[in-house]
Every structure is written in C-alpha cells, then in structure tokens.
Amino acid sequence: MNHMAVEAPSFAPLSPEVLTLDAEAETARIAAWMREQVARRLRRRGAVVGLSGGIDSTVTAALAVRAFGPEKVLAVLMPEKDSDPESLRLGREVADWLGIESVVEDVEPILTASACYERRDEFIRRLVPEFGPGWGCKVAISGSLEGKGYTITYLVVQSPDGEVRRLRMPVDVYLGVVAATNMKQRARKQLEYFHADRLNYAVLGTPNRLEYDQGFFVKNGDGAADVKPIAHLYKSQVYQLAGSLGAPEEIRMRPPTTDTWSLAQTQEEFYFALPYREMDLCLYGLVNRLPAESVAAAIGLTAADVGRVWRDIEAKRRTTRYLHEPPLLVEPVLAEDAGTPRI
Question: Whole-prediction pTM value?
C-alpha cells in the first residue's frame, strides 16, 4: 500500500519562550543603567513615578527602588472623577509594599478648571444630545481582524438607567473627545514634574514596548519623561519582572486598563487588536521578520489574521510617528541638535 508523504511545514512555529528572559539579571541591568543615567547625565538624585495601580507603573517604581533606594523614590497618585477607585487603593498598596513615600494629587479641580469634562461632553452630545450627569462613556475599536482593512471607532455610552448605546464616531467627534480626554494625562504630568523639580528628581515614564512602538501615549502627557526604563520590554516580559520582584498578586492579576473613561475599558478594547500575549508575539514576529505562518501557529490565528495585525501595527506606527519627534528646528542651535529633523 502506498502512503502519500506528508510535507513538513516550511516554517518553524514561533514559541512564546522567545520572550522569556532572566528577570533578575535584567532587573540588575536596568537598575544599574538608571543609576548611571540619572546621576551622571541628568544630574538628578532620585525618581518620581506616577503610580496607577497597573503593572507597568508598579514595575517601574520597583526598578527605581532597586536603582536609588526607597528613600529617593516618590510615588504620585493622581485620581480624578472618572478613575476606578481601585486604582488609588492599588497604588497605595504598591507604595506600601515598596516602602516609598507617596502623595495623592486630585486632578479633578485642574481638569474642571480647564473644561476637560465640559469639552469632552460637548463633542459627545453631537451624537447623543441627552448625554450629561449620570451618564458613562468610553471609546472602543473594532474591525482590525474582521478583514475590513481598517479600524472602526465607536462611542459607547451608558444612560443613568443602564441603557448602553454603541455609535460609530465621525472623525471630528473622535478627535474632539480624544483631545479633551488627553488633558488628563497632561495634567498628571505637570504634577509629576512639580514634585520632580522641587526634589531635583527625574520623572520616570512607564510605557512598555507595545505602547512605545505603537504610540499608545499622549504627547506631552504620559509620553513625557526623563527616563523610560521598560520601553524595550514586551508586556509579557514586564510581567516576568513583576513576578521576580515580588509585586503583589492582585496587581499582577489585574487586566491592563486605560483608566481614563467613566466606563470600564481594557487596552485591547481601546487600542490594541489582541490581548497583550498575542500582541507581543505578533510584534516580535514583525520586528524579526518571521513568516506570518510561524506567528499564526503560536497564537492560534490564521496567517491572514497575522498579516492584518501587522498592517494595523504599521498603520499605528505611521499615524503616531510625530509623537516621538522632537520640536523641529530650521537649523541646529546646539551641538546635540545636529540630528534633529529640519522643517
């Protein structure tokens, strides 16, 4: 009896183990680098970290303690009326765990004075005229894996009686709502720099590689920092460091959220096409030019799906490239300006 030979796949399936690192060694490497950069290059003597109760800010604060000692790290907790109360509680828990000083800065008065909520609600009322006190809202996306070739943005609102509506957002409404909401990150950052200036500390940013690569931050908001110690780490690697550092289990088990909108929202729902484990491997595959089939086999998607995720990543990179750009100069002024793009 003749048997047909089964042809082996022409690619090697990607293993999630490619993102496994020596967490203790990486912690020591980052801490030593931070000490060197903050002291010698920035001429600062400690660090300020905005603590959100999430995994990224927790790991960043823990790395700062390794680098400078708990007595030279200040945590700033900055709730506002749309914040999840759990964020403040967990932020305090992290500060207590690390033995660092923490201060609570209520951002709501700043946002109210600058009409953040009022401006946001004005744009929302273009779609939902009755939107007002007692309503909740968030922004969500869909379409990146549906074969459309583009992402659709929706406004989700919940009335005081619990009715939920999902409406497609015109571009002007989306831009207006996001512009107003971005004021939250910028208000928080000015408070971080107030404390950094009075203490002669450096401000630490908390983006992981997914966020930094795809522009998931606000320019001159959470994107502003003197040092970004985990920007080279994939999200799953940040979790590895959290486990090695002994971060509280409740922090490690908490789903990544934006904590920006009055309705609960995950980062996947707002920005990323997939949960972080799958996104990590998709980004790794793209960066390392692996076959789509190799990545697909690792995360349970088709090669076509992986291709769509890659196109979404590239689109986000193009759209948010300006977030990484320094101010443009007609010509260099200082020696270090030589590499600055020209207008």
Answer: 0.91
